[in-house]
Specification:
- This protein has about 260 residues and is an alpha/beta fold.
- The protein has a single domain, classed as P-loop containing nucleotide triphosphate hydrolases (Rossmann fold), CATH 3.40.50.300.
- The protein is about 35% helix and about 15% strand.
- Strand 4 and strand 5 form a beta hairpin.
- The N terminus is likely disordered.
- It binds adenosine-5'-triphosphate (ATP) and magnesium ion.
- The site of magnesium ion has 5 residues, from helix 4.
- The site of adenosine-5'-triphosphate has 18 residues, from helix 4.
Length: about 260
């Protein structure tokens, strides 16, 4: 299978903007996976090798150069999160179809290989949820119910292996931006992180230049990754998004997806 996936890091890779926004120190040791009823009580979901192959999920396949690119991304992200005491990462792009969901899944699976690190991946693209389709998962209640505080975290999350929990979604929400900036969503997500003792939370989001959803949600995250598509995203789009993000959060970096030339890290 040939996948033209490379991750490259645009300009000053992983430059930390707005460093003065850091409010907490990194926990010394990541929480152990000892007895923890909330995490262990999540229902399991098995990601089949066929789904991996069909959908371009390369994380874990160490002989694939694209997997190496995701491991590099994972380690850079993890180091930056730890150094700054950050945990939550929004993954967005300038326009649709840049590869946000595929990058989010591969990054989550690569993070999940880190022993003692709990990663949560949530579908926050309430208009066009993509994770359930990509992972061939059945999702129970809609993410909207969870964000409105109307259902429990165990209803929306599935455990995929020991270290990764995935919250997929099958239903789009009419008032996506309004839900994402609501008090109920912030409360539900904070409680989720505490209950699960999550170390990293990845939010797969919608594109920035088509809706206000990402801007609405940014107060809930510590930092953001912008996924640009080579030969599709323009410099002006990337620049506009980086500026918008940098005014509101910490920009971890830009992942250049669908790059036909070698990875530049
Ligand atoms: N590097 C890549 N190589 C090959 N195909 C890719 C790559 N990245 C993404 N794709 C394909 O492009 C399509 C869009 O990818 P994906 O759904 O991840 O993008 P998205 O930005 O999340 O889209 P949306 O804006 O609709 O949520 C999918 O069919 C995916 O398999
Ligand atoms: Mg998507």
């Amino acid at each position: 299978m040939s996948i033209d996936m490379r991750s490259a890091f645009h300009r000053e890779a992983f430059k930390i903007h707005n460093a003065d926004r850091v409010v907490a120190q990194a926990p010394d040791a990541l929480s152990s996976l000892s007895k923890d009823s909330s995490w262990l009580s999540l229902r399991e979901f098995r990601l089949s090798s066929q789904t991996r192959a069909n959908r371009g999920i390369v994380a874990g396949n160490k002989s694939d150069p694209a997997c190496v690119a995701f491991d590099l991304l994972r380690t850079k992200v993890m180091q930056t999160l730890k150094q700054n005491g950050w945990r939550s990462v929004a993954i967005t792009s300038p326009m649709p179809r840049c590869g946000k969901s595929l990058v989010a899944v591969n990054l989550a699976l690569s993070l999940a290989e880190l022993e003692g690190t709990r990663t949560v991946l949530l579908d926050m693209d309430l208009r066009n949820p993509g994770l359930a389709r990509l992972l061939e998962m059945d999702a129970s209640p809609s993410m909207e119910f969870f964000l409105r505080g109307e259902c429990d975290v165990a209803d929306v999350l599935r455990l995929c292996g020991r270290n990764l929990a995935v919250g997929a979604n099958l239903w789009s929400a009419r008032l996506a931006s309004e839900i994402l900036q609501g008090e109920a969503a912030a409360t539900a997500l904070k409680a989720m992180v505490q209950d699960l003792r999550a170390d990293v939370v990845l939010y797969d989001m919608t594109s920035m230049l088509t809706h206000d959803d990402v801007l609405a949600f940014l107060p809930n995250v510590d930092c953001a990754i912008l996924v640009a598509a080579a030969e599709q995203s323009t410099f002006a789009e990337i620049d506009a998004c980086e500026r918008m993000l940098a005014e509101r959060t910490n920009v971890l970096g830009v992942v250049l997806n669908r790059c036909r030339h070698g990875a530049v890290c």
